[in-house]
Amino acid sequence: MLISKVSDQIKKSKYISRDLSWLRFNYRVLDQARDPGKSLFDRLKFMAITSSNLDEFFMIRVGSLYNYLDYGKERTDYSGLRELPFRKKLLDYAHRFVNDQYLTFNNELKPLFHKSGFDILKVSELTEIEQKKADSYFKNTIYPLLTPMVFDNYHGFPLLMNQLLTFGVVTRTTDEGKPQDRVTFVQIPQNLARFYEINRKDKIIFVPIEEIIRWKIKKLFRNVDIVSVNLFRITRNGDFTLEESDDLEADFVQEIKAKLKTRKKGRVVRLEVERNPSQFMMKILKERWIIDNANVFTINSLLDLRALWQVVNHRQFKDRGFKQPGSIPPLSLPSDGVDLFEYLKEHDVLLHHPYNSMEPVVNLLERAAEDPSVLGIKQTIYRLADQSRVTAALLKAAENGKHVSVLFEVKARFDEERNLREGERLEKAGCFVIYGISKYKTHTKMMMIIRKEGEKVTRYVHIGSGNYNEQTARLYTDVSLLTTNEIYAHDVSEFFNVITGHSRPNEYKYLMTSPKGMRHQLMELIRHEARNAKKGLKSGIVVKINSLEDREIIDELYKASKAGVPIKLIVRGICCLRPGREDLSENITVKSIVGEYLEHSRLYYFHNNGDPKVYSGSADMMVRSFDRRIEALFLIANAELKREAINILYYNLLDNQNSYIMREDGTYIKRRTGASEEVVDIHKLFYNKACSTEQVELV
């Protein structure tokens, strides 16, 4: 009866729960692992991604929910549920996902290992010679790194690290004639490869190191009776929302460093444990961490499927997965050999990654670092690649005496330590470094190069939706603009003055920015389409984003739908809007594209009675994007580039190979190709530049 009441309440809400919507997104990622048309190694890659996605979900989203529960704060989800019933609904759904995840791994993927040239085996499945190799590896490498930590009346409960595999070993001794059980924890070092690799003729054998440790566990417990050996893994709360400082004068770098430490001590929100664990141990863990069965996930296979990356990335299998085509030249940039400093004086360039390489941007920055005519470089940085060429270029520019200003976002989740480290390197080289804007996260992506050319100064601007990360630029779809247009240059200069100083410009001509104004400006563009529809004029909205969650924007889209505006939304992940509901959103459709590349680009199209306005940039339609982040959307003003951006949206709408259609109840169905329908796979199609040259209508 209670379950039925909760379900009815969720169905009645005109909004979809953000967290339940996210779990449905991870199901779409899991769907890639289930696809028999992909190679096994690509399927394993997606399986590993679902696991890392779920880790972040528990750390941040479930962690956020527990902030409310633990701090006694009220929260009503978009579904209409309060904290406790929503916790039950969310964790029930998470259990269902994990069950489906492991059914896929055990029943669909594992049977394919052997014929694909590898196996994941336990020690008992090794030959005698292989066992000797594993024994030697344990003695020489693993054993010296293991530290048993007992918990009893004389030893306090140890600090167990977030997301590390841990053995809970229950032992029994007899004290004064009475059997005494106690538990000792052994954490597996994170700096060891997850699998010990053995070459067996034409196969690679991957042996989980936890199985080697289990095999030799008695080496750590000499002359002690072992009752049970239990492998488990915990996930701690990594969300600091309620602890964020409102003190604008705080030493922000030190604050972030302190919070990185508390992440290691955050409350436990999930316990993954292998089958049939010791009830003695489980009672201790549940009481210690104030969790119940809803937080406990029993795993009947390999714990922590992120380990599969070691298989996917193995040198022997590097050619067995997805083969990325070579990038093609941008439509607006005729050849690789062009001098960008000269070309950009007369032309704007639109880049569509990964189909267009990020090289023009990185090369321009590297040239600027060496060019004696360049006076300065300003840049925002959110996430960087390992051995970043961007950082190297900025360091070189500073060494060459140029003014370099960099805004490093130290709240880029899970990249905080790297950004702090890289920021400190730039500071030492003489760069002017700003570590974020206190309570706001700087998520915008922009760069400006100031170059003296004769009697004038030219400002070269790059602004886009993606990070300055050469590695992810090959895996994420993004859109960016290179230009010397004075209107962009003026707006970006003003914007840099805002985020590095105290300037408050009245108005930008080509930019929309947050936290000031973006939500209102987008709502006004939506209202304008509604007014046109009511007048009988042509109208339409097409938006491609990562997430749609802001209630005010959703309500405005509902009003526009009622006014007769056709609205087509391409939302990769979270979507809290209900499409196709009678008398609410009948004119709204939602699709999600999930495939080989992570759809990261944002594009906003408003018909404007035949004179479309098209924007791109860093912002999604989320509360955090409008209220708690520094974001920017830029108008694509050039007619040719605007047409190219519209074509990108057009083919996204046509895609029938990577697309899922959202239904009114919040569920998704895979888009299927009709018998006479042409196959459209945008992750292949966009490598053919001819597909983006024609004039099209979106609505």
From TrEMBL:
What residues does the Polyphosphate kinase C-terminal domain cover? 340-504, 511-677
One Pfam entry for this protein is: PP_kinase_N
Q: Name the domain of life this protein comes from.
A: Bacteria
The record places domain Polyphosphate kinase N-terminal at: 15-120
Top-level EC class as recorded in UniProt = transferase
Q: Where does Mg(2+) bind?
A: 383, 413
Where are the active-site residues found? 443 (phosphohistidine intermediate)
Q: Does the keyword tRNA processing apply?
A: no
What Gene Ontology molecular-function terms does this entry list? polyphosphate kinase activity
Q: Where does ATP bind?
A: 53, 476, 572, 600
Query: Gene3D superfamilies given for it?
Result: Endonuclease Chain A, Polyphosphate kinase middle domain, Polyphosphate kinase N-terminal domain
This chain's function reads: Catalyzes the reversible transfer of the terminal phosphate of ATP to form a long-chain polyphosphate (polyP).
Q: What family does this belong to?
A: Belongs to the polyphosphate kinase 1 (PPK1) family.
Supply the name of the protein.
Answer: Polyphosphate kinase
What is the organism of origin for this protein? Answer: Pontibacter anaerobius
For this protein's source organism, the top of the classification is: Bacteria, Pseudomonadati, Bacteroidota, Cytophagia, Cytophagales
